[in-house]
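Side project, low priority. Logging it here so it doesn't get lost.
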Amino acid sequence: MEQSGVSRRALGALALGGAAMGLSGCEGAHDTDLNPKSRQFPKDFTWGVASAAFQTEGAQDVDGRGPSVWDVFEKVPGHIKDGSDATVATDSYRRYQDDVDLIAGAGLDAYRFSISWSRVLPSGEGAVNVAGLDHYARLVEALLAKDIEPYATLFHWDLPQGLQEKGGWKDRDTALRFADYARVVVDRLGDRLKNYIILNEAAVHAVFGHVLGEGAPGLKDEALLGPVIHHMNLGQGLAIQALRAGRSDLQVGTTMALQPCRPAGGPWAIWNRLASDGLDALWNKAWLDPLFKGTYPKDMDEFLKGVVQDGDLAITRQPVDFLGVNYYAPAYVRLDLNAPGKIAVAAPPKGSELDAFGRHIDPSGLFEVLDRVRRAYASPKILVTENGCSDAFSNGPAVLNDQFRIAYLRRHLQAVLAAREAGCDVRGYFEWTLIDNFEWDLGYTSKFGLVAMDRKTGVRTPKASYAWFKALAESGRLPV
C-alpha cells in the first residue's frame, strides 16, 4: 500500500511490514457487543474530548514557535495523503475560546489537549519562549472559567526539530531535555494546571516514526527501536519526577495505545502466535512493564542491548495517579520471515465489521485491554483518553447526521461499563475528537470530530454525535 495510507488510527492493522486500509464507514453487524448489567455511569465520571497541538493549533510560525519534526515531515511531497498541511488546522491557537465554548456547550467536564514543546522551547532546550507559555496559560484559564478541567499532554509526537537534528529520541540527552521542558511547564502553569499526561501513544511514535517511516521524523531503521523506546520511557520517568518536585498537588499519568495482539487463524495458529506475542511485547509490554514493574519483557532484550544503564529502570518505574488508555481496534498479525521484525499484518477474521481503516470494530477489545491492566498491573485508576470513529475517507464535507459514530461510541461505552462491573477502575472517557482536524499523514481526508469545520470559511457545525454526547454527559446514562 502507499506510504501515506497509515496513521495512528490504523493501530488495529499495525505490523512492522505495513498495514491494510479499507474505505468503509463505522457500521456493520454488531457481533462483538458487551452487555453490562447497568447503563448508568457514576456522577463523578469524567466526560471529555481529546485533541493534539499539531493537529489543531495552526499558527506554526506565530509568537516565536520553533519547528517540530512534523513541520518538516509534512512538507515532503507524498507524505500527506491529500497534499495538505497543518499550517491552519482548526485554527485553535487563535480560536481556542471557540473550542472552549463548544466543549462547555456539550456539558463536558474535561478537555485533553497537548502542549507544543517547540512553542515553549523553540529549539527544544535553552531559552524559554514566554509567548508560547502565555498561550497555554490563557487556554487553561478559559477552560477553568467554564468549569472544564484541563488535561495537558506534554508530548504528542511533535519533537522540536532542533533536538531531532541532535539525534532525537535515539539520543539519551533528549530524555534529559524532556525533563527540563516538564519543569518549565509546571513552574509556569502548575498553580492552575493540575492534570498532566506525559507521553501520548509512544509506541506509535517509535514504530511509525522510526521504523516504518510513515510518520515524523520519517526514519526507517529497525536498529532505532530499542534506543527510542528506552529513552522515551526514561524521559517519561524523569518528567514525572520533575513534575512531582515542582508541585505536590498534581495528578500525573501517561497515555498508551493499547491493543489486543491476535494471531491470524486464531489462538491455535502456533507460528502466528509467535508473531502476535512479539508484537504484544513491543506494543504493549515495552511501555507498561517499565512504568509499573521497572522491567522490560524478555522479547526486548536484543533491541535494548547496550542501551539501558544502571539505575534507569528505577527511574522508569514511577507512581502514577492514572493510566490513560487509547483504544481503536485489535491487531491481527502473522509470522513473515521476510518482513522487518518477522511480523506482518493479517486481515481481520472473515466477515468482521470494519471501520474506515479496514480495522475490526471490536468493543470487546477495549474490555480486554482494560481488564488486562487491572489483572497484570495492580488495577490502577484508568481514563479512556481516546476512542472514536472516522467518516469514510474523503475530501468532501463531513457527515453531519453521523449515526454510525453514535453507534460506535455507544457500543464502546458499553464495554467501559462492563469493565467497571468486572472491577476495572475506569474513571473517565475522552472522545477523539472535538473538531475534524489534521489527521497526520491522512491530512483532512479522515474526520473524527463531533463538530465539522468548513476549511474554506472556518465555520464549525456540530454533528448529531455532538448532541448525543452532550445528553450522555449530562445524564450519565448510556441509551440503549
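Brief comment: Confidence is low (pLDDT under 50) at residues 1-25, 27-31.
Revisit when time allows.
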